[in-house]
Structures are given as structure tokens and as C-alpha cells.
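Entry 14: structure prediction run for Superoxide dismutase [Cu-Zn]. Input pasted below.
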Amino acid sequence: MKKIWSGVHLTAVATIGGLAATLAVSAGVQAATGGGQQDLTAQLRDVQGNVVGTLSVEEASMGHERVTVRVSKVPAGFHGLHVHTTGKCDPQAVDPSTGKVSPFFTAGGHLSLDAGKGHPGHSGDLPTLLVDEAGRGVGVSVTDRFQTQHLLDADGSAIVLHALPDNHANIPERYTSADGKKGPDAETLKAGDSGGRFACGVIQKAR
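Run finished. Output C-alpha cells:
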């Protein structure tokens, strides 16, 4: 009976030891990947105020951020997706240069921590989002172009989903613009010809 108990005791110790090792490895993996902790979030709303998507920004390893966007009830196809400089999403915003309503103009331009770079080198430029025929889409990317603190500055930041695909200024020099210049023009270098702003969400700390 004593031997049997000893065997059970040793087995229990071994099991507990194995469990501790497993937990230690798991903790190490979580630490290396940021622990999967969601740090920032946003709800994307269209011009009518309908929630059409969500954003999450999580700390990843080695100074990177994991950006996840999920949308529904969005027109099928490719859509430009960018982080913009200002955390204000006014669907009735007016462009001062034209005096006309320009939805979500208040979100400003693309986040750019390096003023010398154009599109697609802006810090807030993200991969184009593909939406299926059912109106659903999911995009996940990892970037080292910004950290969470850059999105929570004094005027905040916003995630903007555009109406059209983003060509990422990939215009070969065999194409000539109306002014006779080869390659991408100023408009393309600004936003990749991704059209109007379909939806916008103010980025904030996750609760």
C-alpha cells in the first residue's frame, strides 16, 4: 500500500511539474506576442450612423502592433483602409476648400509620423480590405509604423474605410497624367485614389 501511494505521489508531482512547465512556456509565448491583450478599439460607422465594423489594435512583439478590422454590410470589393490623424468622425463635415459636405473630413489626412513620405509610406497606410459578396470582410496586419501611444495623442486618431480600392500609388511611369508627368500624380500620392470616406471610427482605449 505504501509503494502504491508513493507511486501515485510521484505521478502527481510529475504531472504538476509538467503543468507548471507548460504554463511557463505558455506565459513566455504570450509575453513574446504581447499576450493577446487588446489595447485600442473603434467602431466604424457609415454616413447614416450604422455600425459597419470594428477595429482592434493589439501590442505584438518587438515594437509591432497587430491591427484587425472586421466589417459587415459593406459593398463587395476592395476598399482603402487607413489610420487618420484626428479622432473626430463627423458625417456632415464640410471641406473648407470647397464649402461642400465631405463626410468624415474632420478625421484629417493619413497618419504620417514622417512628414517626408507620401502614400503608401504614411504611417497610417494599411493593406486594402477585401469585402465578400455578403458584405463581410476581415483584415489582419502587423505594422511597425506606429505604436499605440501615437494614436492617443492630444487630438486622437481615427480609422477610415474608403469607398474605392487603394492602388497604393502603384502607377508605373508608362502612364502619363493630364499635366504630362509620368507615374502617380499628387492626388494618387495623397490617398491612392481610394475615393470618398465610407465609414469612420474614433480610436480609443479598449475597456
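Notes: The domain at 36-205 is CATH 2.60.40.200 (Immunoglobulin-like). Will compare against the previous run tomorrow.
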